[in-house]
Amino acid sequence: MKNVLRLAVLAAALVYFFDPKRGKRRQKNAIKKVNALAGKARGAAGRATHPKEQPDDVTLVRKVESELFRDAEVPKGKININAENGKIVLRGEADSPAMIDDLAKKAKSVQGVQDVENLLHVPGDPAPSRAS
Predict the structure, then answer these.
(1) Nearest C-alpha neighbor of 122 from the set 80, 61, 83, 78
(2) Which helix (H) or strand (E) holds 105?
(3) Range with the lowest mean pLDDT among 16-20, 79-83, 110-114?
(4) Is the pTM value of this prediction over 0.85?
(5) Residue 132 has what pLDDT?
(6) CB neighbours of 114 closer than 8 A, spacing ≥ 6?
(7) CA angle, 54 as apex, 51 and 57 as ends, to 5°?
(8) Under a CB-based contact definition with an 8 Å cutoff, are residues 81 and 90 in contact?
């Protein structure tokens, strides 16, 4: 039964593509569609195997600033953001320990950030020293 069905599908395809009046046009259209699909597949495979390049430190700082200072509650003038080879360093004062943790998490979630060194502190506490 399967063989009969396969033969029927093959016969229908042959009649469709080798029709004397419209067969050539159908063949060309089919080839165009197959090439288009193959091109899309190659493009998707290329994007999957070649991820985006690591942004430079200045770009990375701008991306982190954009993410952290989106919230109006964050004291923009009291926080300094630097990048060193993909590692973000946060310095300055934040209003609460919860805000400090939230800012570090947001910075870590930015694409391209490899690590976050959190040197933020609440007002009245001494600034943490660098652990190098």
Answers:
(1) 78
(2) helix 97-109
(3) 16-20
(4) no
(5) 47
(6) 85, 86, 87
(7) 165
(8) yes
| Alpha-helix residue ranges (DSSP H) falling in 52-96 | 57-68
Q: Is the pLDDT of residue 115 over 90?
A: yes
Q: What is the mean pLDDT of the chain?
A: 87
Distance of CA 36 to the CA centre of its chain: 25
d(CA 78, CA 99): 13
Q: Which fold has domain 57-121?
A: Histidine-containing Protein; Chain: A; (3.30.1340)
Task: Tell me if residue 73 falls in helix, strand or coil.
Answer: coil
**What is the residue extent of each domain of the chain?**
2-49, 57-121
Top-confidence residue, 69 or 131: 69
